[in-house]
Design a protein that fits this description.
alpha+beta
């Protein structure tokens, strides 16, 4: 090789040594997808797991109180009453108990409705009576007192529903007032014929004359043992009627009419 050729070769070696990579330098190659070699691709990364809270931590967390469903009790039944004149429809219904010749005109009578307790627990009903106009409001006030006292009434319907028969009404333990009839065992007008008397729970409070008891369904109550509906001397029922000036047939010597209350005592 000539001297010129050796010079060119040396120059080439020097250029390569100055510009090329050295032994201590390493160039990292990138993958074809552009993700650095030392990073995990996003699609292959695992979700970070969070450890559950310790029992002590859970115990310190507030526990919500359970929701309670509270049902309000139904309202207590209230007493109501009405007083009204005898309508043509009611006059027709009353044909068994009233007729021309009775000692009181229909125009002088009043139809009264009152709320009363029954003999079954929680039983409440609206009863009906026909009384004289001049005692109608007083009668309604008495039954308000009896309702508030919790006194039970078995039935309270017009005697006309029993064909005007006092015996049938008593046997059904029906409380009634007006009935154009004579006194029991006599010919004079009863106070019922004027609408100024009431027979209350006649089975529990029978009419007693000697050994005779009316209605016969009332025989078990002739000894006057206390019980629901049984009227006793000086009790709330007697006192309620006394507030309007009515007296009790249970105080008579003979006969003793435990069911009977009237304005005149007869």
């Amino acid at each position: 090789m000539s001297g010129l050729g050796r010079g060119v070769a040396v120059l080439a070696v020097c250029l390569l040594a100055a510009c090329g990579p050295t032994e201590s330098t390493t160039v990292a190659s990138e993958p074809a997808n552009g993700t650095p070699a030392n990073e995990t691709p996003l699609g292959s990364r695992q979700p970070t797991k969070v450890p559950p809270p310790s029992p002590a931590a859970r115990a310190s967390e507030p526990v919500p109180a359970p929701e309670l469903s509270v049902t309000a009790p139904p309202p207590a039944p209230a007493f109501t009453s009405t007083v009204s004149a005898i309508t043509p429809e009611l006059a027709s219904r009353m044909s068994p108990s009233w007729h021309p010749g009775c000692p009181v005109d229909l125009a002088d009578l009043r139809y009264v409705t009152v709320t009363h307790h029954g003999f079954s627990a929680g039983e409440v009903a609206q009863g009906e009576l026909v009384v004289h106009a001049d005692v109608a409001d007083d009668v309604a006030s008495v039954f308000r007192i009896l309702f508030e006292a919790g006194y039970p009434v078995r039935s309270m319907r017009l005697v006309d529903d029993f064909g005007g028969s006092d015996d049938a009404s008593m046997a059904a333990d029906n409380t009634s007032a007006f009935n154009c009839r004579a006194i029991t065992g006599g010919t004079e007008w009863s106070q019922h014929a004027y609408g100024r008397a009431i027979d209350l729970n006649p089975v529990e409070n029978p009419y007693v004359l000697g050994r005779s008891v009316y209605p016969r369904e009332g025989r078990p109550f002739a000894d006057r043992a206390s019980g629901p509906g049984v009227i006793q001397p000086g009790d709330a029922v007697v006192q309620a009627f006394e507030t309007i000036g009515w007296s009790w047939g249970g105080a008579w010597a003979s006969p003793v009419d435990y069911q009977h209350f009237s304005l005149t005592g007869g």
